[in-house]
Amino acid sequence: TAAATAALLSLSFGVPQAAFAAGTPLKTAVVDFQPVDGTLAAEGVVEAVRQSVVAAQVPGRILEVRVDAGKVVSRGEVLARIDDREAAQVVAAGQAQIARAEADFSNARVSFERARRLTEQKFVSQAALDRAQADFDAARAQLNAVRAGAEQAIAARGHATIAAPFAGVIAARHVQQGDMAQPGMPLFTLHDPGRLRVVASVPQARLREVRAAAAASVELTLLIGQTAQTVRATAVQVMPAADGRSHTTQVWLDLPAGLKDVYPGMFARAQFAVGQAKKLVIPAAAVAYRSEVAGTYVIDEKGEPRFRQLRLGESAGAAGIEVLAGVQAGEKVALDPVQALAQLKSGGR
Fold first, then answer.
1. 3-state SS of the chain?
2. For position 105, what pLDDT does the model report?
3. Residue 159: what are its φ and ψ, rounded to 5°?
4. CA dist., res. 91 & res. 147, Å (int)
5. CA 308/CA 286 separation, integer angstroms
6. 313, 13 in Cβ contact below 8 A?
7. Could you tell me if residue 303 is left (phi over 0), alpha (psi between -120 and 50 degrees) or otherwise beta?
8. For position 96, what pLDDT does the model report?
9. Neighbours of 106 (CB within 10 A)
10. Half-sphere exposure (CA, 13 Å, Cβ side) for 262?
11. Relative to the CA of 158, which of 62, 68, 120, 230 has its CA 20 to 30 Å away?
12. pLDDT at residue 253, as a whole number
């Protein structure tokens, strides 16, 4: 019966049974072409504005790994340590070379001063003074070179302690304790989660429209699991270069700070406003979803609802949703699909 059908629908959809009372007229809307903002969709990926691959600068066995992926670190925090015994020996050898070079420099200076006094007293020739001057200059240069080498050895020993270059999150750990590190070998990937952007690619043919739209706010849809959230870019930058293969240009869209569950590598879609266009629009309330199928209840000539499958396009904002196929302009659709289904069932169809 109609009453039983209404009761069943009220339980299934959580709608008061009174809403399906017999004789309640269906609220309808006319599907028509409406001017809506034209958009250009560009797919992209979320990335960190500041990201760094922390690599080894000295060879050696990794003695300790203090952090793992997902760890929040501060600037200067120690991430790992490399065996520095070989570097320590180089530092010790450098200090010994400095001591010897300082002694040679002291002797050369004394010899030069003696030769200068003897030359003034006409006891030695000018050639002897020139040789003493050359030895003195060479000893001074050698001392400077040895000191520079020792400072380099000390700096190299300091590179055995791997520290975070800035505050952020460890995105990946590439080594294990006991691994042999070599200069240039990646150890960690670090990024700053407070500064994220979307890197999208747009066709060269639409570049002029994108540059014009970049001055306005740009909406981005971020897909997070099975849900999506819409945010607005805080800044838009069009790169002054194009890809020769795909004939696209990158656009950087800065994301606002404080977004939850947004990480580098996530998929994102940017919507650029590129003028207005007339599109066939259906109210969002009139769309019913059955599993992965979208449809609506069209009111026929007898005033009865009939379910019809739709192929939907992009959102048209407050106007509704763009319809690509399924209904035509001028047709009426029910604004309450649940009530339309109740009326359909109560009629025995």
1. CHHHHHHHHHHHHCCCHHHHCCCCCCCEEECEEEEEEEEEEEEEEEEECCEEEEECCCCEEEEEECCCCCCEECCCCEEEEECCHHHHHHHHHHHHHHHHHHHHHHHHHHHHHHHHHHHHCCCCCHHHHHHHHHHHHHHHHHHHHHHHHHHHHHHHHHCCEEECCCCEEEEEECCCCCCEECCCCEEEEEECCCCEEEEEEEEHHHHHHHHHHHCCCCEEEEEECCEEEEEECCEEEECCCCCCCCCEEEEEEECCCCCCCCCCCCEEEEEEEEEEEEEEEECHHHCEEECCEEEEEEECCCCCEEEEECEEEEECHHHCEEEEECCCCCCEEECCHHHHHHHHHHCCC
2. 82
3. -70, -10
4. 11
5. 11
6. no
7. left
8. 83
9. 12
10. 28
11. 68
12. 87
| Phi, psi (degrees; rounded to nearest 5) at 348 | 85, 15
Give residue 167's pLDDT.
92
Beta bridge partners of 240: none
Per-residue model confidence as pLDDT tens digits over 260-295: 888 888 888 887 777 667 777 788 887 888 777 888
Q: Which pair of tokens denotes residue 101?
A: 């070079």
Q: Specify the pLDDT at position 294.
A: 84
Measure the CA angle with vertex 198, ends 196 and 204; round to 5°. Answer: 150
- Tell me the two tokens of residue 170: 């460890």
pTM above 0.85, yes or no: no
